[in-house]
Amino acid sequence: MLHIHLHVHVCGGGDSRSVVESAVDQLRRRSLNLVSPKAALVLMDFDRVPEDRRRGRGPENAKGSELLQFVYLKPNLEGLFLRMCEDCENRFVDPHRVLPILKKKWPEYTKPMSATAISKRFGLSDLRRAAKHDQYLRGALETIGLMDNA
After folding, report:
1. What is the pTM of this model?
2. Cβ-Cβ contacts under 8 Å for 147 (sequence gap 6 or more)
3. Is the bond into 50 cis (omega within 30 degrees of 0)?
């Protein structure tokens, strides 16, 4: 049996660097009170990263970014949800087109979607299937021990 504890911190909005800085700050705060984690992941919508880098606000520019494993959601969270749909696991869609395509596959989708609604729609097998076509997602699942049996 696999035992995992995930601490989730919503970093809020802002550019990639701000998200990473928030994640690093939260990681450091938690490390003062608890045992240091085996891994620290930060999930980011990839469609924002190129523009943030152009402006010098890329995620790798944040102090402490080396403490985190970047997990780029391509092109964004909705793109990941689309790729978790049956027979769409290798569909990397333009970020401007992904929402209408996702809504055809998942008509009930609204932004933001609750964790309960997401868990009713998708399971670990959907995530693993998408991860076979996505190095960042696969790396994240391997890091937390969820790709072993895929």
Report:
1. 0.89
2. 128, 131, 138, 141
3. no
Give the tens place of pLDDT for each residue, 85-106.
999 999 999 999 999 999 999 9
- Chain position carrying tokens 């333009």: 94
Q: Is residue 111 within 8 Å of residue 77, measured between CB atoms?
A: no
Phi, psi of 124 (to 5 degrees): -60, -35
CB 115 within 8 Å of CB 107 = no
Q: Contact at 8 Å (CB) between 68 and 47? A: no
- Evaluate whether 77 touches 47 at the Cβ level (below 8 Å): no
Residues making up the chain, counted from first to last: 150
Please, what is the angle between helix 135-143 and helix 124-131, to 10°?
A: 130
